[in-house]
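Re-running the complex after MR caught last week's input typo. The corrected sequence lines follow. Everything else is unchanged.
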Amino acid sequence: MKTIEQWGIFEIALEGRPAGNPFTDVALNATFSYQHRQIQVDGFYDGGGVYKIRFMPDTQGEWRYVTHSNHGEFDAKQGEFLCVAPSASNHGPVRIHNAYHFRYADGTPYFPFGTTCYAWVHQGNAMEEQTLQTLKQTPFNKMRMCVFPKHYIYNANEPVYYPFERDDTGQSDFARFNPEFFRHFEQRVEQLRDLGIEADIIIFHPYDRWGYAEMTAEQDGRYLRYLVARLAAYRNVWWSLANEYDFLLEKKPLEQWDRFFQMLETCDPYQHLRSIHQGSLLYDHTKPWVTHVCIQHADVKRAKEWRTLYRKPVINDECQYEGNIPLPWGNITAQELVHRFWIMVANGCYAGHGETYLHPEDLLWWSKGGILRGESWQRIAFLRQVIESGPADGLTPLEDEWVWLHSVTGGFNGNYRLMYFGEHQPAGWSWGLPKDVAYTVEVIDTWKMTITPIDGIFKNAAEIPLPGKPYLAVRIRPVV
Amino acid sequence: MKTIEQWGIFEIALEGRPAGNPFTDVALNATFSYQHRQIQVDGFYDGGGVYKIRFMPDTQGEWRYVTHSNHGEFDAKQGEFLCVAPSASNHGPVRIHNAYHFRYADGTPYFPFGTTCYAWVHQGNAMEEQTLQTLKQTPFNKMRMCVFPKHYIYNANEPVYYPFERDDTGQSDFARFNPEFFRHFEQRVEQLRDLGIEADIIIFHPYDRWGYAEMTAEQDGRYLRYLVARLAAYRNVWWSLANEYDFLLEKKPLEQWDRFFQMLETCDPYQHLRSIHQGSLLYDHTKPWVTHVCIQHADVKRAKEWRTLYRKPVINDECQYEGNIPLPWGNITAQELVHRFWIMVANGCYAGHGETYLHPEDLLWWSKGGILRGESWQRIAFLRQVIESGPADGLTPLEDEWVWLHSVTGGFNGNYRLMYFGEHQPAGWSWGLPKDVAYTVEVIDTWKMTITPIDGIFKNAAEIPLPGKPYLAVRIRPVV
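Corrected-run output:
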């Protein structure tokens, strides 16, 4: 019997050339069964007369399947496979954990430290491979990336592949996908997976000159279902319905975005994480189909407000980017981006990285990938280490009145504390300390990436001494 | 005929020892007349059998007066004086100008760059003289200062003078003022005046161990009227009803604060500027008796929101202090305070300085005065020079969408621009530039205090080049 690792991909391929449009005229799906449990999974046409069904089993043991199709040749095909233990680096898909945090399906903690290369899969093989090489060196475990190519400042180049069949004039046939495009896209998702990186897949976006932002609701829906049929079996997939969805509201009103969310809920057998990213008008992330808050906002000191408002994990994926382009969202210093990361993270939230340094050939990481030129990513790696060596269940913001008054930031879990002082330079600190328990204090230089213990064991101390310098954090851990 | 300079003080002194409490049982005031114009001015008891009436004439020419009293000896006293041109450094009291700004009564621009030494007049002669010496070297042209002594952290010392008569046990008689206290206080106000510094007089505050915060509404009102009778004739007086009034709300409900404002409107013949300072609950500064917004808030990027909300001049008198004490409001870096000043000021608002460095004898400038130990005050002096060499009518915030999105800050007046980039480091800039006019561009290093012209004259430039470094500002001036 064929074996597939848990959260791996089992694929069925069926050959045949039915009449009509193979993307729209053939209905194909399969029922996968484990004992009495049944899961319906849609198939898709992959070109060259080949139809496929992909499935990600979540339970070890013997699975069976049977296909269903309006094309008799594809109907009632049966088979089985054995789902075995996952390989060492396979922890399954990421799920919500502890209300405001994440972990992998196998229980391993996952703290998102993502970056953004919107159009990296459209830059040609050499640069795409370079991006993957860069990612190997960096801390990033999530990648925000668009399906569609991008038309925007610093983004004038044509993509290598197009998602739909095109005629000689460049007109797309939105009823016919280009399987080559999607195979290429999947390859990149798979390579990210093998680097331990979640693919935060942006389904729609407004930066367009090919007509993808102008599709009808029916065309949008078909595209969305095709994408889910192809990609949902990859365990590292997250769905980001759009980038700056509000810049598309004239074409796709709010109800349509709600419907897209409901379609994802309906089509995706694995319920991958779902969110949506805004320009200036926040989507109502309290809606039940949103699994976590994706936000674009420069004022990271509002982190706690977003937690309180939405009661879900908060990722500020775009708290502006390190760079020097003329646009304010793309020219903060590396120090400032690191500062914003610490504020989000010590508040029990998460942040996203991006880099926008001007380049003579417009090779900006934020969109095209390639190489990193900045100085924030190393500090984000350091912060990730600090967080991963902390409580597995994540941090909750301290609510002490002196902490929340738009000033210093402090997160806790039990008697663990991570307090970030930023532009503050207290020579001592009294608030939010553990009570009636012995603890150690370490001073973290967030820029120099050093961790320095303060001598002694503290217990019910009125105040802990601090160096009186800015951009420091303090880690407090109970003595066990 | 006696001569008094315009906005100087004309004083009437009357001697006598009527029966009863000389502070409460004698009613005394005077009517001052200039041609057909009449102004009522309250008198006050100054101890030693001397009653006084002080008057600040605002018009040059011949003035007459007649007194009124329930004590016959003081009634119907008449006299006259000649009001002459003011001396060179006397520009009169500060008034609101151009809706969001200030200027002196003689039309000279006044841009507030204030500091805070809450209890400096209660530190004894040596330190108080030292404070005045320090102020001579610094840019500050407004001083926030309390009438009452202060009981608070780092403030344990007894005052030299008490505002009310006290018995042997230290109990105050709130119906009997201590004229020596007020003469001392007036001397300090006068010395500030002679240094060109407005006295932002804080009438009530919650930091008390002597009972001043516990007075009845009647006692409060009597104190307020006595203060106005004594001090209103000093042209450099501003009224700040309270510091952190909201921490007194249990004792003095909101209606009482409204009433205090109305009393100031009623008693003060000169209508000095009036505001109130909050801890966390903002007073409604839209109320008609508030002349300008006094605010305590760390998030200076909300400056434009406060302008829009209140439609009055905005002074963020406490956007946290340079220092290193454990409390977040008193431990930001000098760099951060300078940064916050620039954000407020380039938004057409104003900010206040304070310094809270730990000291072995608790000599913190913010409360006691003395000497300055920090590094922000020099940069505030530099900023004041920049502002004073700019448009006399002050700045209005640019509303370009890229500027206001919680990012860079830009103020304008006609074709003048002052744009502050802060943590942003654009290599070029395109937004909010003047149209159809030739202009020069200078780069201002807000910390190093340098102003560097960019070569060339610009006109309808798509973009101006910038150094791509943080904490810079740009000054744009039309070529005339």
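None of the earlier attempt is carried over here. Chain A has three domains: 3-84, 95-388, 398-478. Chain A touches chain B at residues 280, 297-299, 301, 320, 324-329, 331-333, 335-336, 358, 402-403, 405-408, 421, 423-431, 463, 468, 470 (CB under 8 Å).
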